[in-house]
Amino acid sequence: MAISSPRVAVVVVAGGRGLRAGGEVPKQYRLLGGRPVIARTIGAFLAHPAVATILPVIHPDDAALYAAAASGWRDPAGRVRAPVLGGAERQASVRAGLEALAADAPDLVLIHDAVRPFVTPAAVDAAIAALADHVAVVVGTPVVDTVNRTDAAGAVVETVPREGLWRAATPQGFRFSAILAAHRAAAAAGRNGFTDDGAVAAAAGHAVHMVAIAEGNVKLTTPADFAAAEARLAAETFLRLPDVRVGVGYDVHALEPGDAVWLGGVRIPHDHRLKGHSDADAALHALTDAILGAIGDGDIGRHFPPSDERWRGAASSLFLADAVRRVRERGGVVAHCDVAIVAEAPKIGPHREAMRAAIAAACGIPVDRVGVKATTNEGLGFTGRREGIAAIATATIRLPLPEDDAS
């Protein structure tokens, strides 16, 4: 029987380790377009008006990673509940999430993989609508390719008819009381090998209905998946942000006796240091001004005046991060950065890749969108005399069109 105006909860399953994706952190916390994957996934559900509650289920070791990711979404209504800790297997993690919802049970629950950040409003709508007539639904796409079964050596032994075959995805949707009971029954019977919740529901005797959704709701599993997702996200982002702007920044700092210089967010041992109120990172100062110039928002001195003691000795990465924040608050992104450092010494080449990585992380963009180069001044001028170091930077940003121009 259909439920009028059902309360819908989403359990976001984020307890896995994601070893096949590579990297140093579980794949649900890896950056995708500068944001953790889980932040993008939860953000997609926060953007859906039918979703009342979102409950993440995380690995016990990932509390700090989750807390950092949680700063990446806005939730003024408090729809994202505090995360619960998952179990050794996905099935146990889902059950932990369902049990946590039981005290204030929703009518419907959608169970979704945290590493499917491209879930669309249409997919959520389709799952919720289907639950008006079904107890359990699984979204997916029909198989259209030829399917072969092979032996251990890789030889084809059978071509499997593809009629009626589907590629299952998430969210998988259920009447809440039914799927909670099904999970409890499976656990009580010691049946812990189910890999998705549709199978748990089927084992409890419920008919599971497939719901067709559009292609693209991919699960990020391998390094190739992440590379494809970055390319897709960049293309989608750039298409919706047609206002392209370029800013230019320039900065110079004198050298004085010391033991290291900061350039491009990297500490480089040297017999001098750059003189300034902050860490005097001329490269990041120039880039910060370039970004601020692109959005017409003053310069670094306006936002972080050297007369303010709060910024004495401050890391210039803070200034760059603030400029990037100002771009994002306008609904835009930093698309590309290029920095040229003019210095006789120290040598920049050995530190170039570390600088690119630091700038990419601060701007939330892939490292292949960051350029760092260096040149000497051939002994000419103040840089040639080793009295100081200069930097020139350009930044390309993309913004949505102003409302007056959108038509």
From TrEMBL:
Which Gene Ontology BP annotations are present?
isopentenyl diphosphate biosynthetic process, methylerythritol 4-phosphate pathway; terpenoid biosynthetic process
| Alphabetical list of InterPro entries matching this protein | IspD, IspD/F, IspD/TarI, ISPD_synthase_CS, MECDP_synthase, MECDP_synthase_CS, MECDP_synthase_sf, Nucleotide-diphossugar_trans
Q: Name one GO molecular function term.
A: 2-C-methyl-D-erythritol 4-phosphate cytidylyltransferase activity
Q: Tell me its EC number(s), please.
A: 2.7.7.60, 4.6.1.12
Q: Where are the annotated segments for 2-C-methyl-D-erythritol 4-phosphate cytidylyltransferase?
A: 1-244
Q: Which residues bind 4-CDP-2-C-methyl-D-erythritol 2-phosphate?
A: D251, V252, H253, H277, S278, D299, I300, G301, T375, T376, N377, E378, F382, R385
Describe the function of this protein.
Answer: Bifunctional enzyme that catalyzes the formation of 4-diphosphocytidyl-2-C-methyl-D-erythritol from CTP and 2-C-methyl-D-erythritol 4-phosphate (MEP) (IspD), and catalyzes the conversion of 4-diphosphocytidyl-2-C-methyl-D-erythritol 2-phosphate (CDP-ME2P) to 2-C-methyl-D-erythritol 2,4-cyclodiphosphate (ME-CPP) with a corresponding release of cytidine 5-monophosphate (CMP) (IspF).
For this entry, the protein name equals: Bifunctional enzyme IspD/IspF
